[in-house]
Amino acid sequence: MTRTFSPDALIRTENFIGGQWVPATDGKRFAVTDPATGEIIAEVADSHAADARAATDAAAAALPAWRDTLPKARAEILRRWHALIVANQDALGALISREQGKPLAEGRGEVAYGASYVAWFAEEATRIYGDLIPPQQHGKRMSAVKEPIGIVAAITPWNFPLAMIARKIAPALAAGCTVIGKPAEDTPLTASALVLLAHEAGVPPGVLNLVTASRERGIDAVADWLHDGRVRKITFTGSTAVGKYLARESAGTLKKLSLELGGNAPFIVFDDADLDAAVAGLLAAKFRNGGQTCVCPNRVYVQAGVYERFAALLAERVGALKVGPASDSATQIGPMINARAVDKIARHVDDALTHGARLVTGGKRITELGPNFYTPTVLADANSSMQLCDEETFGPIVPLFRFEREEQAIEAANATPYGLASYFYSNDMKRIERVSRALEAGLVGINEGAISSEAAPFGGVKESGYGREGSKYGLDDYLSIKYLCQGNLA
Fold first, then answer.
1. 137 DSSP assignment
2. Is the dihedral of CA 394, 226, 48, 93 positive or negative?
């Protein structure tokens, strides 16, 4: 029978190293708070370089046996882990909502989404094939085999504290790698709960290790991994600035990197689009997790002929969104993660209004609910001089830009160093073909706002990073190819 836990029983406050829950080596701790109220949920281990090195030591000791474990056996452990995640969906969802702030329904949805990656890579574990290369000379046999890359360091963000680490750990374990992980300082409890369930599923000691750390000490901990030659891969989701730092600092040991970085996603509505469908798609894409997702639209381009009608339809739907704490089952938009996030949102709105934007709905803090709430907002008459055109807002703000011709929309959509996600709505099949090819992004939603799936490759181009997560391609980032040449056979 699959074991179930209450949300409180899932909470672990220590590091998980070598199959044991252990405090930081110097005993330091930091507080994890509820973003809706500011109340302390728990105090967890505040790790530094010595703890990171201990995690690497454990992963290195466990690597040979795990690498040699049959893929079928690794897959069975992943299946048990998946079953435990699904059985504890309600408890995990409640924990996510408490420490991250997203509504309860979204917390439960994230659990299902993260679990889907574990199930997917449990299947992919048994499908790591090599190739026989056609002979080029008599007496020689050539082949290519895929092997686990080694120790993987996974560094994850706060906005999807379960899904982001699950879709990094699952392929690494499936490939035969061992893992050292560090979750974001705002949301370490969910990651620790996920590791607890992995241990319950039978992941051997040292194969999966997790250290938690505050912002300042976390830099020290990660730096140890970047400079340790035993760590062969870094997988990171977060800002472009941090991704570039990781790439620079790990260059000395030439690690393999998977970087899923910042975005500035365009959302284009052409005048032949189904406007009701476009509004629904924008709501799904933009307001999930209160706009705190890397693939949410940051710039909405609407063709002039339907601009005002679209703005009115959107404002009506956005103005009706229910804002509140995750503990309220009616909540659709929860708190932002912290005060810094709210300050940035307010700064972007104020700057837009100063540069000619028209406030259609929202545009204010909701201090009566708590310290980190902001109204879902629609701004019309946005232009390229505004900060929100170039910077990712990461909040429930929709700026509407007007355009006349298809070429203008594509040029504006691509006028950014980022290239993670993009979206457009049109019922013209020829236009769909043209625009989908012209957009510079790793993910393109065509008449669809919900585009993520464990079966699809997730990742960006340009300064949104490289590497892919999920799908059959996602396993390749955790494998290296070895060429074997056997001679003197004739």
1. S
2. positive
State yes or no: is 308 an active-site residue: no
CATH number for the domain spanning 121: value is: 3.40.605.10
Instruction: For 211-257, write each residue's pLDDT tens digit.
Output: 999 999 999 999 999 999 999 999 999 999 999 999 999 999 999 99
Residue-wise pLDDT tens digits, 334-363: 999 999 999 999 999 999 999 999 999 999
Exposure of 191 by Cβ count < 10 A (0-12 exposed, 13-18 middle, 19+ buried)?
buried
Whether 374 is in a domain gets the answer yes
Q: What is the mean pLDDT of residues 420-434?
A: 98
pLDDT digits (tens, 9 = 90+) for 80-97: 999 999 999 999 999 999
Domain total of the chain: 2
Judge whether 186 and 337 are in contact, CB under 8 Å.
Answer: yes
In one letter, which amino acid is 97? S
Q: The CATH number of the domain where 387 resides is what?
A: 3.40.309.10
* Catalytically annotated residue among 99, 106, 124, 260: 260
Quick one: which H or E segment has residue 361? strand 358-361
DSSP state letter for 279: H
Say if 3 falls within a structural domain: no
Q: Tell whether pTM > 0.90.
A: yes
Structural domain span for residue 79: 8-261+464-484
Q: What angle (nearest 5°) sits at the alpha carbon of residue 186, between those of residues 370 and 100?
A: 55
- The C-alpha atoms of residue 46 and residue 41 are separated, in whole angstroms, by 15
